[in-house]
Amino acid sequence: MPASHASASRSRHARALPRKAGASSALRYGRLAAMGVVALVILVAGVWGSWGCAQHVMLSKGREQGTMTVSRCEGTVCWGPYEPVSVGSTARQRVSIEHSVAVRTGETYSVVVKPGSSDVVRTGPAGLLHAWVPLGGALLLSSVVVAGGLRMRRSAWVLGGAGLALITAAWVAL
């Protein structure tokens, strides 16, 4: 092979490499962006799922507060009488609370009434931690996406550790 032909062949390959490197770089950034969006959507969904109950626990000032004694549970709901503790709150014969591992028949719990309904949510540390459990699950799930999709292992360990700590604290507090 003549020298001029070999150098022309090398220069053609040299020109082809930057295009290929540019394409792989674009794919890499596209993957990073997509995985970042997936991780963010998971975290937003966790906050959204938690906020429905957490807002009543965290922002309970000015709401009806009292105690509920669980008298009966059926399916996913438990019922019982409500005794007011805060000023302006009225006693009710029957309020409902979500049936979960945090609620047992015969037990009395500090609760806050959701405005405009007869539904109540547990208050105190146990109620607060229980309300944020969906966020703990989202932190665990997003840690897998961050580790595998974004290849950010340290950040994934932090997210997973925070999720595990939140779920464990909620379980211990119950």
Automatic annotation (TrEMBL):
Keywords: Membrane, Transmembrane, Transmembrane helix
Name of the protein in question: Uncharacterized protein
Sequence intervals crossing the membrane: 29-51, 129-149, 156-173
Domain of life: Bacteria
